[in-house]
Design a protein that fits this description.
The chain is of the alpha+beta class. Helices cover 53% and strands 21% of the residues. The chain folds into 2 domains: 5-139 and 288-368, no CATH class; 144-235, Roll (Pdz3 Domain), CATH 2.30.42. It has a 5-stranded antiparallel beta sheet. A hairpin with a 2-residue loop joins strand 5 and strand 6 (205-212). The two termini are 31 Å apart.
């Protein structure tokens, strides 16, 4: 049976509208990643100026400049690739000509001033994350919470011994937040023969129960429950003081989750999913499809994660620069310029290589779906 012509036209219009909306959301997702990094770099720029350093350029975006505006000997650029931005503080590279002589260069300013410039980027990232969470809690009336509701507890199983009851809503497994029913089951399978700590909501009361999983699965499964995935609408306080507090508290909790994931990356790497820029843009796009509040929530979390990761003492990141400044302060002498160049240069190449590999992997995963 064919589709009537007027219905076909309507379907085409709806499809075109959906495609346009999807394209707009992808654009905003890419733009959001750019804003995330640009705010971080603006922190470096602003504090560098406050402590008397010479700033050469602050650019929104990377690559060839599309537009340059010069004011007070500083170039402000809008560049072609909208994924972030950068700030050029004169003398931040010890090999830059004239850096050793210019009193306004990064190299000639006190170590405390240099440390502040390095820390300013992560601090601004955290500030944007707190603002994002504050906006979510202050504007939003409800938040979505994914839980797994126990529909049946099978006799003679780990679930029965742990005291699980019908109606219990499971939120966390060993501090792991399952993203789907498949993820819920897969995580349990990965921990056969181990103790599993479940955070449950039983008629509004949060509690933890521990289940000893058997070494092998049976026809009743490892845990021994039948369950259904539920999406709950959780009320969110919207008063100004509570929203401000929630912004800081949620940023702190997000930081703990990131640190926990980093720890599992070395101890249980199979449990941690690492994504590059394509994966981040894709997740932001999907959150934008779900609505503005979901988009703000995810962007705030990514911003906090970006700020925290930059504080790590990894070569080429802000944390390593602060670490080297601390070593110089303790020893009372500057580290050789060649060592700094090699230290940060190798770190940058390794990070760039890792980003390229992960991003290529992201693309293959998306194409394969």
């Amino acid at each position: 049976m064919g589709v009537p012509m007027h219905n076909a036209v309507e379907l085409l219009r709806e499809g075109a509208a959906a495609g346009l909306l999807s394209g707009v959301n992808i654009f905003f997702a890419i733009l959001a990643v750019g804003v995330l990094i640009a705010v971080h770099e603006f922190g470096h720029y602003l504090v560098a100026r406050v402590v008397g350093m010479r700033v050469i350029r602050y650019s929104i975006g990377f690559g060839p400049p599309l537009l340059i505006w010069k004011h007070a000997d500083i170039e402000y650029a809008l560049s072609a690739i909208p994924l972030g931005g950068y700030v050029h503080v004169f003398g931040m590279s010890p090999a830059e000509p004239g850096a050793a002589e210019d009193p306004r260069s990064y190299q000639r300013r006190p170590r405390w001033a240099r440390a502040l410039v390095c820390l300013a980027g992560p601090i601004f990232s955290y500030g944007l994350g707190v603002l994002g969470y504050f906006t979510f809690f202050f504007v939003g009336q409800t938040a979505q919470e994914r839980v797994y509701e126990v529909a049946e507890v099978l006799p003679g199983t780990a679930a029965e011994e742990a005291g699980l009851q019908v109606g219990d809503q499971i939120g966390l497994l060993n501090d792991h937040l399952p993203r789907s029913s498949d993820d819920f089951g897969a995580y349990i399978d990965q921990h056969k023969g181990e103790e599993l700590v479940l955070v449950i909501d039983r008629k509004g009361e949060l509690m933890k129960v521990t289940a000893q999983l058997p070494p092998e699965s049976t026809d009743k499964g490892l845990l021994g429950i039948r369950y259904a995935e539920r999406i709950n609408q959780v009320p969110v306080d919207t008063s100004l003081p509570e929203a401000i507090k929630a912004g800081f508290v949620t940023s702190y909790r997000q930081s703990l989750l990131v640190l926990s994931a980093l720890g599992r990356l070395f101890t249980k790497p199979s449990e941690v999913e690492v994504g590059g820029v394509p994966a981040i843009v894709n997740e932001l796009k999907k959150s934008a499809d779900r609505g503005l509040l979901d988009f703000i929530w995810l962007l705030a979390g990514l911003t906090v994660m970006f700020g925290l990761l930059n504080l790590l003492p990894v070569p080429a990141l802000d944390g390593s620069k602060v670490l080297l400044l601390g070593v110089e302060g303790l020893t009372g002498r500057d580290l050789p310029a060649r060592f700094q160049l090699v230290f940060h240069g190798v770190g940058f190449l390794l990070l760039l290589g890792l980003m390229v590999i992960v991003s290529i992997s992201d693309v293959f995963k998306m194409v394969g779906k």
